[in-house]
Specification:
By secondary structure, this protein is an alpha+beta fold. It has helices at residues 3-10, 24-35, 54-69, 74-81, 106-123, 133-138, 141-149; strands at residues 46-51, 93-100, 127-130, 158-167. It is globular and about 50 Å long. The two termini are 25 Å apart. The structure holds flavin mononucleotide. Flavin mononucleotide (FMN) binds at residues 12-13, 15, 129-133, 174, 176.
Length: 188
């Protein structure tokens, strides 16, 4: 099995982080990999926001938590009401990929960019976890306005489609969930 396949099979969502920040070189490699993901008609309709300011990450986390507390979804409300639950797991870096709403496939382009970044992070020994709360927050007019009020809004006409936290893991690598069987159908 080659190294690329091994990285893909070994990447896990990490939910506890050391406070130490990821290196500048690693950050450049991660975001470069994101920008080499395929995009429809090579439009590259994205913007990457790298948030490494602890106070801002904390403010955004609290904003997302309060949004969940008022959600219609009982599971989200229960999760957010747990005081010890940190939506971003105290990770030192939060990365948001926003897409140009006028592009052909901004959602797909942003998701592929994020997957590239998760995999490259794993190859560098950096943990990551997709955190959907930011996208949910921005999918709501009030939430989007609050997000912008933190100075995090990107250009007009862009919408966050993917967010993930990155940092050095402070937990053992979790076991992979068993894969569901019979999900591949080969027709020859
Ligand atoms: C679209 C999407 C949204 C996710 N949102 C969250 C999230 O908000 N919080 C979280 O801890 N994990 C989140 N995850 C991570 C999944 O829970 C995780 O990938 C899944 O349990 C499989 O575990 P693994 O990544 O370790 O293989 C998300 C994953 C995806 C693809």
């Amino acid at each position: 099995m080659n190294e690329t396949i091994q990285t893909i099979l070994l990447r896990r969502s990490i939910r506890a982080y050391q406070p130490r920040q990821i290196g500048e070189v690693e950050l450049q490699e991660i975001t470069l990999a994101g920008q080499y993901a395929p995009t429809a008609m090579w439009q590259q309709p994205w913007h990457f926001t790298v948030l490494q300011n602890h106070d801002l990450i904390e403010k955004l986390q609290l904003l997302c938590k309060s949004f969940f507390l008022h959600s219609d979804n009982a599971d989200l409300r229960a999760m957010a009401s747990r005081e010890d639950y940190h939506l971003f797991y105290h990770a030192p870096t939060l990365l948001i990929v926003s897409g140009d709403c006028k592009a052909i496939t901004p959602l797909q382009d942003c998701l592929l960019a994020m997957e590239n970044m998760l995999l490259v992070a794993a190859s560098l020994g950096i943990g990551s976890c997709w955190v959907h709360s930011v996208v949910m927050l921005c999918g709501n007019d009030e939430g989007a306005a609050a997000f912008k009020s933190l100075g995090l809004g990107v250009s007009e006409g862009y919408l966050p489609h993917a967010a993930a936290v990155f940092g050095y893991s402070a937990m053992p690598l979790p076991e992979a969930e068993p894969r569901k069987s019979r999900r591949v159908n080969v027709v020859r």
